[in-house]
Design a protein that fits this description.
The complex is a heterodimer of chains A (415) and B (218).
Chain A (H helix, E strand, L loop, with lengths): L29 H9 L2 E3 L5 E8 L21 E7 L2 E10 H5 L11 H20 L7 E4 L2 E2 L3 E3 L11 E5 L6 E11 L4 E4 L11 E4 L13 H4 L7 E2 L2 E2 L11 E6 L3 H15 L8 E5 L1 H8 L9 H4 L15 E2 L2 E5 L8 E5 L3 E11 L8 E4 L5 E17 L6 E6 L9
Parallel strand pairs in A: 1-19, 14-22, 15-17
Antiparallel strand pairs in A: 2-3, 4-21, 5-11, 6-7, 7-10, 8-9, 8-11, 9-10, 12-13, 15-18, 16-17, 18-22, 19-21, 20-21
Helix pairs in contact in A: 1-3
Chain B lengths: L30 E5 L4 E7 L5 E7 L8 E7 L1 H5 L3 H7 L18 E4 L13 H13 L3 H33 L26 H4 L15
Antiparallel strand pairs in B: 1-4, 2-3, 4-5
Classes of the chains: A alpha+beta (415), B alpha+beta (218).
């Protein structure tokens, strides 16, 4: 053997591993967490729940004739009940015994794999719920804009997560085309790449949560369930057309840039809808980063980039941080928000009802289950489930408002 | 016919000379500091009581009893459209009224900074206005891109904070020995070992008058 080379030393060389594991997936759940935090979570049974409303206040007002005239009869308030049912979601996570044993101390690995799996499970579940909350209660996540061999462009790829199973339907209420698994969801190019070719998928098909029935009003309620400006469809099974204007949400199709007058118009519509005293601290403006950037483009704020540009003349007043408000209302910027929309949500009117709060599936206190092998014996793998059963409800939809058709800036969401 | 704009009352100004920050084409101050509840706007349309008319409503009801800094904007900048376009876009078809009142031919004031200005910060209003004017003079695609990047960075930091909180929650819920899932919803009923209660006598430990198992009468 000649001169020893580096290959002969590999057995004893230590490898440097960066002591941080970069999480490349999107796991935030902005709005979902906010509704959980700010509003009441109501426990309900498995029976349909009822949400009473009062669309007609009653009583008859007229000119009186007190000189023997007929004063007529009156009327009373008319209550209408909205009803809903809880929907169920489950998320399974699995890992092998060795994956845990090989990573369970700092000497073995930079991250305990079992710990990581559990942490990611809770985060991804929140992310999936945040994506669902953007929808219209059909469990639709997004629509196919264009379809390629093994990829599809969508409106907002942030609504999906890497490795997610989805069902693609021809349309809501249409037919199931196939189930596919997303390899990666790239928000910059608004592209979903799948693990296999997606045959039969075309523009306009809808991408739904795995296992969806594909029917309208069969899934979890979302923003687009309640943010409806026309007297069509239903609010909690009440036909909007039965009480025009009572279960709708004021809306403005912007069709361009976000200007101050648009925001003021939205405020005017809420005033017209409810009369007065409706705007308070619980109103947040839910939007994607595009709308946040659009608002900053009005240059009525001291935009954050000015911090460097304005030099020392502004050091004590200006921060390198986005303004947290839009025209005085809290801006809730959510990467999963549908671009082009700003939803003004009065969070005091939003709440969740839950038959089963988010938790690990538990049998007698056990939450981690062994998997059976093909032989009938145990497999050296574990599975655990996160489950949730509930529904999202918004009352007083006229106290909300939304803008649509806001221009999407070049470079964002594949534009 | 009286213009509906004449219905709008004058807002209450903070007693600070603002003319030094510039003038509008009509000679008014470019900036003004006003008491938010005193700033009104016109809303036209059909009201819940059935009447169709213009009414004066608070412009910044949500701000509360605070002072706000406003800047004058030209009608074009405020609305983003011409008067003809405005007449089409903002006219309520059922009542014929303009939802936000007539086209602001002379421009309009709108709130800056998206937040009230505290009286103690008024000494710094010059710096705020300098920053706003700087931002208005330096608009470019590159600037918007940088703003978008900073917004994304904010979001990333928020997510990191959420992650940290979630990790703490998960770790708090983890069993004392080994990694086993447990309830993060509140009540702990995980795979943690149960407490096994063994009577002191069974362990062979001394049991005296000052020991807990000693009962009266025995």
């Amino acid at each position: 053997m000649g001169v020893a080379n580096v290959a002969q030393t590999l057995a004893s060389q230590q490898e440097w591993v960066r002591p941080e594991l970069e999480d490349l997936s999107l796991t935030a759940s902005t709005l979902w967490r906010r509704i959980e935090k700010n509003t009441k979570v109501q426990a309900v049974s498995n029976r349909p729940f009822r949400v009473p409303t009062l669309p007609i206040q009653g009583a008859k007002f007229r000119v009186g004739d007190f000189d023997g005239g007929d004063l007529g009869i009156g009327s009373g308030p008319s209550e209408v009940v909205g009803t809903g049912s809880c929907v169920s979601f489950v998320q399974a996570s699995s890992y092998t015994a060795l994956s845990e044993w090989a990573t369970d101390t700092d000497e073995k690995a930079i991250e305990n794999f079992a710990d990581l799996t559990h942490r990611m499970a809770a985060k991804t579940f929140g992310g999936y719920m945040d994506a669902l909350i953007q929808g219209d209660s059909s469990n639709t996540l997004d629509t196919v804009v264009t379809a390629g061999s093994d990829y599809a462009t969508v409106n907002n790829a942030n609504l999906f997560q890497n490795g997610q199973d989805v069902d693609i339907w021809s349309a809501v209420g249409g037919s199931l085309i196939a189930s596919y698994t997303i390899l990666t969801a790239d928000a910059v190019t608004a592209t979903l790449t799948f693990t296999t070719a997606i045959s039969g998928v075309t523009t306009g098909n809808v991408i739904m949560v795995s296992g969806s029935s594909g029917q309208p009003n069969s899934g979890m309620n979302g923003l687009r369930t309640f943010a409806v400006s026309t007297n069509t469809g239903i609010w909690m099974n009440v036909q909007r057309s039965s009480y025009p204007g009572m279960y709708t949400t004021p809306s403005i199709p912007v069709g361009g840039a976000l200007t101050p007058s648009v925001v003021r118009e939205l405020q005017a519509l809420v005033e017209l809808a409810k009369g007065l005293e409706t705007d308070d601290d619980s109103v947040v403006a839910h939007m994607s980063p595009n709308e946040r950037n659009q608002w900053e483009a009005n240059a009525l704020l001291v935009q954050r980039i000015d911090y460097t540009g304005a030099g020392d003349s502004s050091a004590d007043m200006l921060k390198k941080k986005a303004s947290g408000t839009i025209a005085g209302r809290e801006a809730l910027v959510n990467v999963r928000a549908v671009p082009g929309y700003i939803d003004f949500l009065n969070l005091k009117n939003w709440f969740r009802v839950e038959t089963k709060p988010l938790d690990f599936y538990s049998v007698g206190g056990q939450t981690l289950f062994p998997i059976r092998g093909a032989s009938g014996g145990l497999a050296s793998s574990y599975v655990f489930y996160l489950c949730w059963m509930g529904q999202l409800v918004a009352v007083q939809t006229r106290e909300n408002a939304f803008l649509s058709g806001i221009a999407i800036q070049k470079g964002l969401f594949g534009h | 016919m009286i213009s509906p704009t004449s219905l709008l009352p004058k807002p209450q100004h903070w007693p600070l000379p603002m003319g030094r920050f510039g003038k509008t084409p009509t000679g008014a101050n470019l900036y003004r500091i006003v008491f938010a509840p005193s700033v009104k706007m016109l809303v036209g349309g059909k009201w819940p009581d059935g009447r169709a008319e213009y009414r004066v409503r608070p412009a910044y009801r949500h701000v509360g009893n605070e002072w706000v800094l406003e800047r004058w904007l030209s009608a074009q900048e405020f609305t983003g459209m011409t008067e003809a376009q405005y007449q089409i876009r903002y006219r309520d078809p059922s009542t014929g009224l303009l939802t936000c009142g007539p086209y602001p031919v002379s421009g309009a004031y709108f709130m800056c900074m998206d937040a009230p200005i505290k009286p103690e910060a008024l000494d710094s209003v010059e710096k705020i206005i300098a920053g706003i004017e700087f931002s208005r003079k330096h608009r470019s695609a590159d600037r918007y891109r940088k703003n978008a990047e900073l917004i994304q960075e904010d979001l990333r930091q928020q997510e990191a904070a959420q992650d940290s909180e979630l990790l703490a929650k998960i770790q708090e819920a983890r069993p004392a020995f080994g990694v086993r899932p447990s309830n993060i919803g509140g009540m702990i009923h995980s795979t943690k070992s149960k407490n096994i209660v063994i009577p002191a006598e069974a362990t062979g430990l001394p049991v005296g008058n000052n020991k807990f198992v000693q009962l009266k009468g025995e």
